[in-house]
Specification:
single chain, mainly alpha
Length: about 170
């Protein structure tokens, strides 16, 4: 199966769909296939299972790195990598960086920047999250609901309260 996934992306590296799904299959489905037992009995110990899951996640991240050689400005590839780092490897710092990279791409969805800030907050880097959101907020179109300008402003206010930012130093926005 992995050979066929590589073949599909090698034959025509243009469709991002193939890269994303190859990474998803590698990270999530392959471990499930490897753990399947005829009557549902566990095939591997938890430790061995975690090793397999981590190995498959790293393989998926390698696929996404390769995809970026063909699609260097594709936010979706960075987002998929962030999701795998976060949900498969538990690598919050790596996921935060991948969401930051996604947010820097010209086709980035608005949520990538918000997720970067949220993961900074989870890492205890609240001042960095606040600074990121304060830079982000004025760039968001107020009338585009997907941009979430009101949500970003609410997160700014919450971080200011958590950090005890005095009123005179608070974000004033546009």
């Amino acid at each position: 199966m992995e050979e066929l996934l590589h073949l599909v992306t090698a034959v025509d590296p243009r469709p991002i769909y193939f890269w994303l799904n190859a990474a998803r299959i590698t990270a999530y489905d392959v471990p499930a296939f490897r753990f399947a037992a005829p009557r549902g009995e566990p095939v591997l110990s938890r430790v061995a299972r975690k090793r397999v899951e981590d190995d498959q996640a790293r393989r998926a991240l390698d696929l996404l790195d390769e995809a970026r050689r063909f699609h260097p400005a594709c936010a979706a590839l960075w987002i998929e990598g962030a999701n795998i780092q976060l949900n498969r490897l538990g690598d919050v710092a790596g996921a935060a960086e991948s969401y930051r990279q996604a947010a820097a791409q010209p086709d980035a969805p608005y949520f990538a920047a918000r997720l970067h800030a949220e993961l900074l907050r989870r890492l205890g880097r609240k001042a960095a999250a606040l600074a990121w959101l304060a830079r982000l907020h004025p760039t968001l179109p107020a009338r585009d609901e997907a941009a979430g300008a009101d949500l970003v402003l609410a997160r700014i206010r919450a971080l200011e309260r958590e950090l005890g930012v005095p009123a005179e130093r608070a974000y004033h926005g546009l």
